[in-house]
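Input structure tokens:
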């Protein structure tokens, strides 16, 4: 847990900027439901992302594309009810902002009004300028997302590392500078070379949150199901598992099944 900012009653975008300025790393995890959000918030996480990765880990879809705005608002509402300290950021899902800046504004307002979240996240760079500025004009904080952008997976055709070549790296730097100029309060950079992350972080005054982007980011984000070892099929190089809940849960359920089958559960002390 943060030593300098651990007593913050509610993390804000302003405090994230202060953390970067002070050289304190920002911790960020995903959450999609009340129970898990309550646990990770109480554990001291700085930012909770209600990610469109819910499409994968909660709904079993292959990509993030199928999840809808209504689904995201449902998950965000559940998380907001649980959280007392962390800043809550919600992904605007695919198809809910790419069409026009008006559509982006409508989606962002729905998320904020119906869920009570604190900010939204949008994928893309210079090409989403009008949408970012329109959302910000309504007073909604925006977090950007560059590098590997899962909503564009069919354009990329692969989940491999992005921006290894000079042209794409330069474009990412230009996009990051632009997002800061538009007014974004932070940017997630996903699956890019660590040296590129360092360049971007040093160039920008807003926090850079990395995932698969090395040690030089101002903070890190992981999908909760991955870092807790609930999901065992996903094994990227950047993932560190802090628990093996897949095994723990499996063994607990097997123990329960055996006790029910044998008649040892419930016993007399567990009966009325």
């Amino acid at each position: 847990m943060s030593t300098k900012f651990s007593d913050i009653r509610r993390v804000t975008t302003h405090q994230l900027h202060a953390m970067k300025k002070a050289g304190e790393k920002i911790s960020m995890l995903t959450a999609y439901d009340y129970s898990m959000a309550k646990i990770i918030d109480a554990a001291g996480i700085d930012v909770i992302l209600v990610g469109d990765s819910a499409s994968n880990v909660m709904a079993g879809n292959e990509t993030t594309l199928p999840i809808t705005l209504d689904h995201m608002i449902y998950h965000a509402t559940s998380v907001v009810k649980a959280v007392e300290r962390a800043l809550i950021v919600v992904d605007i899902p695919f198809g809910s902002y790419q069409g026009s800046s008006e559509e982006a504004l409508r989606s962002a307002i729905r998320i904020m009004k119906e869920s009570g979240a604190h900010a939204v996240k949008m994928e893309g760079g210079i090409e989403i300028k009008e949408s970012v500025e329109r959302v910000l004009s309504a007073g909604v904080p925006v977090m950007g997302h560059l590098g590997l952008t899962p909503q564009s997976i069919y354009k990329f055709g692969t989940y491999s590392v992005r921006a290894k070549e000079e042209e794409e790296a330069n474009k990412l730097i230009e996009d990051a500078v632009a997002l800061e100029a538009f007014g974004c309060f932070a940017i997630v950079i996903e699956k890019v070379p660590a040296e590129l992350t360092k360049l971007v972080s040093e160039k920008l005054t807003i926090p850079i949150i990395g995932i698969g982007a090395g040690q030089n980011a101002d903070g890190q984000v992981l999908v909760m199901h991955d870092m807790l070892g609930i999901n065992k099929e996903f094994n990227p190089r950047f993932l560190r598992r802090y628990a093996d809940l897949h095994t723990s849960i499996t063994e607990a359920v097997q123990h329960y099944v055996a006790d029910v089958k044998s008649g040892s559960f419930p016993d007399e002390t567990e009966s009325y």
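The beta strands are 26-30, 47-50, 87-91, 119-123, 142-147, 186-190, 208-211, 219-222. The mean pLDDT is 94.
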